Amino acid sequence: MFEDLIKEMERMNGQSVSVEIESDEKGYIDKQCPNEDCEFIFKVNEDDWANIFKDEAVWCPLCRHEAPSDQWFTIEQVEHAQAEALAVIQGQIHNSLRSGAQKFNRRQPKNSFISMSMKVTGGHKRTHTIPAKAAELMQLEIQCESCESRFTVIGSAYFCPACGHNSVTRTFRDSLRKIRAKKDSVDVVKEALIESVGKDEAELTCRSLIETCISDGVVAFQKYCEGMYEGYGKAPFNAFQRLDQASELWNDAIQKGFDSWLTEAEINLLGILYQKRHLLAHNEGIVDAKYIQKSGDGTYKEGQRVVISAKDVENLVSSLEKLAAGIEMECSNA
Ligand SMILES: [Zn+2]
Ligand SMILES: [Zn+2]
């Protein structure tokens, strides 16, 4: 009665169950970074995955972890495949038990003293797999400027998954977007914090949140300049952290300084914000004589603490945006 099952078990030994993975409506398939600290989920264009991506190496758009192309299934896809394999094997065992039982029942002699019958409940079970569904569409569609592969992410990405290329311009744009998002969410964060930890903590946290926007912007622009400047030689260490020096370096390289893209008032304001960042980083925000002399900011006396407003953050971001756009245009014309 178990002959069919035994035969089936022998056939199943070493069998592989293949489970299809569906693409989403735009033709993208889900991937997940195998680095356990990251597990970033993104999508790659199905055609590009076949034609541009290499078997030997795929890079995580967020952490640049590198691994062969067969390591990038999402946890959900793997769990689905395991569940499907189990369903197929259970189906095969069930079906062979059922056919075994049918044969057993057929074999019973009609006129025997005791009649026995076997019944395996449930009908014929499926032995095929159901494809893994694609996760919902992702907002940010990116095409690599180096290898032209297409991928989508939620939030932001630094590296192309097909070639590992880090786009200086895209990274900069993403950083500015993040700074604006941080500034815009301060009020919501404050409300939530007042509820949970009280007014004092909320005030402190949100003030430092706004203050970090200034240093985020300065660092993002420094990285941007360093990346864009690569073709023009080697800039001194941290030179792009200082506005005057950065402007001079660009003037030497492309014959345009920051006054080509910003008004005098904008440059002065940007200079003040750069000096405020310096105070926050090195003097806990307390105004000293050097600040007043270097920034030309007459609104503070020595010993006061600088204030950073949401408007300051917006001014910084929009000036840096203008500078970057100008530099980008000159560099692409060169
Ligand atoms: Zn990663
Ligand atoms: Zn690429």
> How much strand content do the residues show?
5-15%
Spatial strand sequence of the major β-sheet: 1-2-6-5
How are helices and strands ordered from N to C?
A: HEEHEEHEEHHHHHHH
Number of H- or I-type helical stretches: 10
Structural Rg: 32 Å
Low-confidence stretches: none
* Tertiary shape: elongated
Number of DSSP strand runs: 6
Largest sheet: 4 strands, antiparallel
How is this structure best described in words?
The chain is an alpha+beta fold and 334 residues long. It contains ten helices and six strands. It has helices at residues 3-12, 46-51, 75-107, 168-184, 186-197, 199-229, 243-254, 264-282, 289-295, 310-333; strands spanning 28-32, 41-45, 58-59, 66-67, 140-143, 150-153. The strands form two sheets. Strands 1-2-6-5 form a four-stranded antiparallel beta sheet. Strands 3-4 form a two-stranded antiparallel sheet. Strand 5 and strand 6 (150-153) form a beta hairpin. The longest helix is centred in the N-terminal third of the chain and has 33 residues, at 75-107. The chain is elongated and about 115 Å long. The termini are far apart. The model has no long low-confidence stretch (mean pLDDT 89). The protein binds zinc ion (ZN) (2 copies). Residues 33, 35, 38, 40, 60, 62-63, 65 line the site of one zinc ion. One zinc ion binds next to loops.
